[in-house]
Amino acid sequence: MRKMKRFVSAVIMAAMVGTLCLTGCGSDKSAEGSTGSKSGKQVTVAVVQPMSHTSLDQIRDTITSELGKDENIKVVTDNANGDTTALSSIIENYKTDGVDIVVPIATSTAQTAKSVYDGEDTPIVFAAVSDPEAAGLTGEDCANITGVSNNIPADEIVKLIANFQPDYKKIGFLYTSSETNSVSTITAAKKYCDDNKIAYEESSIANVSELQTAVESLISKGVDALYTGNDNTIASAMATYTDAAYAKKIPIYCGADSMVADGGFATVGVNYVQLGKQVADMVEKIANGEKPSDIPYETISDYAKYVNMQAVKQFGGNFDKKAFEGFDVLVEEDGTSHFNK
Asked: Do residues 252 and 263 make contact, with C-beta atoms less than 8 angstroms apart?
């Protein structure tokens, strides 16, 4: 009789457990609508940036925010603060730690990640690389690499300037010589100018200490407008750039909304929140089992069109009201910023 009671109790208990599991004991969160990875295994994603400035920080924050919604993804971040040696060490350390996915922000970081992980299968998802092909991030030896490019069409750059200054005579292109992404953008812009008989001057810098002199040199050559693309070094020193240019009444056109937020005049450029979201989406696909080789790199899907009205006041611009059609005001004349809001 005791054995029979034990047996009946065991059957009842098993039935209860089975019922409970049917209502929520399973480990597959996807059945409940969670964004967790299909395997349920925690995936560690390392996001690395070469330095701090508004654009790069915005990319990092968007990626971490988006991935933070996935309970099975752990995000770690690091910043080389402009030190190329530190950049390599940071990525080497993540390789030693065995992180699952690496997200290098900007061209130099992506190239370093490729070098460090040479021959490894660890997925690399780059963010904000203007020319992945020129940077050596495509091809047979890059099966584990994909990402999102922040390339800007050269014709859009020139159209942007002509929209506000239809009578301009000469453009001044300013970039950092060591940044492949910046060089690529300016090279394309110069080719467009050559093909369309548009006059321009160019100046490159090696570091921020040369920025003011480079701006003054271009202005002395009679440029009517200055343009800088997605250049991390110059983006980190916009105050120096704008002080030198606006003192001579020369507008600065930029490759990113963040650079306009930091003092530039206008952009048809990269919306870095959109870029960060595209990168995070790629990372989630890979975390859920897709291979980088099956995900072609993308370009930014939506260009930003912003103006800084405080900058207009500073350099004394006098533009036709129609020129502002289609542009959002990122910074008001009184300095009120709508950036990232």
From this structure: yes
